[in-house]
Amino acid sequence: xxxxxxxxxxxxxxxxxxxxxxxxxxxxxxxxxxxxxxxxxxxxxxxxxxxxxxxxxxxxxxxxxxxxxxxxxxxxxxxxxxxxxxxxxxxxxxxxxxxxxxxxxxxxxxxxxxxxxxxxxxxxxxxxxxxxxxxxxxxxxx
Length: 142
Hints:
Elements: H1 4-25, H2 32-41, H3 43-48, H4 69-78, H5 86-96, E1 100-101, E2 104-105, H6 106-111, H7 129-141
Antiparallel strand pairs: 1-2
Helix pairs in contact: 2-5, 4-5
């Protein structure tokens, strides 16, 4: 029985490591065609900072529907989900690069080798007048 224990524990360890690595790798990359075109269009950003799904989606959230401001603008410009045509993607990226958000002007950030938006989920700015007013109204209703 002692000779079987090391083999069983080694097998269990290998299975566990494989499962952990597989689950980590599944969430890291953006859609391949979007990443490829973005990296070719903005090579300074690709060199300075790894481009992944959080370039367009809310950082730290696995919900693919939650996008940051840049992701919302790109989705609106592309009009269809999961566009495959590289020229269409590049045109959309160029069309939205003059946008901005709390993070700053996207074109300036891209030229500096930074991600265009790091605002999170692209929701209402919590420090804005409208957000504060809505919060006050919600607290009155409770």
